[in-house]
Amino acid sequence: xxxxxxxxxxxxxxxxxxxxxHRALGATMTDFAGWDMPLRYSSEREEHLAVRTRAGLxxxxxxxxxxxxxxxxxxxxxxxxxxxxxxxxxxxxxxxxICAADGGILDDLIVYRLAEREFMVVANAANAQVVLxxxxxxxxxxxxxxxDDRDAYAxxxxxxxxxxxxLKKTTDADLDGLKYYAGLPGTVAGVEALIARTGYTxxxxxxxxxxxxxxVTVWEALTEAGRDVGxxxxxxxxxxxxxxxxxMPLYGxxxxxxxxxxxxxxxxxVKFEKEGDFVGRAALEAAAGRAEQNPPRKLVGLLAEGRRVxxxxxxxxxxxxxxxxxxxxxxxxPTLGRPIAMAYVDAAHAAPGTEGVRVDIRGTHEPYEVxxxxxxxxxx
Length: 380
What we know:
Blueprint: E1 14-15, H1 19-24, E2 28-32, E3 35-40, H2 44-53, E4 56-59, E5 64-69, H3 73-80, E6 93-99, E7 105-115, E8 118-123, H4 128-137, E9 145-148, E10 154-159, H5 163-168, E11 183-188, E12 191-196, E13 205-210, H6 215-225, E14 232-233, H7 236-245, H8 281-293, E15 298-304, E16 315-317, E17 323-333, E18 338-345, E19 358-361, E20 364-371
Parallel strand pairs: 1-3, 4-14
Antiparallel strand pairs: 2-3, 4-10, 5-8, 5-9, 6-7, 7-8, 10-13, 11-12, 12-13, 15-18, 15-20, 16-17, 16-19, 17-18, 19-20
Helix pairs in contact: 2-7
């Protein structure tokens, strides 16, 4: 049993294996969680609509991969995370969270079971070190090892309705048999990859974990395979509007250490029925009880009646000006053609169709319609 390395990253921006490719494509780059990442290549709206109607290609190599191995790897993750991970079948993935002892959300995660004794935990870039440290701290007493694999992978995603056909041109893996939230080893463009049917756009698509040395090969092969169906490279800006339309939470906006999964309306990810204790259990049981007796603010969708765009932190107010909530994410919606937002609002104002809800945009109370999430759901 070994401890995870506590390696500290330098303050200099890090570059993915595809950095030169992005610059050659004319990408506008931005700092994101210490990484120099593509924000957009052309028009954010065009990239967004390409994913909705055709396909988009993303570099997500800033995400943090952590491998957990050993006879008690599943038991460690059951103890460290709120979900039931040890029961996960090989080849499947699960959305879950890691919480502090007080129930606050440290990060939301996807965990892949790669083998009977091997799991890969994928953390958000900004929280990867926090998650790594927490798993290492919670490792004591388990016959399992926690390994920092952030430098071992590049992550490339192809998302959109044309993505299965594009990927099929580059792999002999059984994509038709690959279910949502499942992953299988295979080859893409002749190189080894973990092929996962996951994503953060609300569309069908795949995330490909490959060696950094193979990233350019895979990117170029997918680019060529998608040329005839309108595949375009996409930056982080359109990824944010895509996930917002799909009602998917973003850490630091809809999820924070000040919120429990029950506060965020995601209590379903907490599995009290699993065997053994887990970090935060007592606090989360109390949070579940409070939520049942006195519902917290609910996460809702807000659809603009006008053209002004709400931003995170803007107050949500009732007709009489009383503050009833706060916007967590907001942007123009390319799909709907109107500004949209997610916000936590008092339960009394959270029902779809509630009248009189406004967003205070720099002193002006703009009318918004309360709607159920998600704003957009793809046709299957």
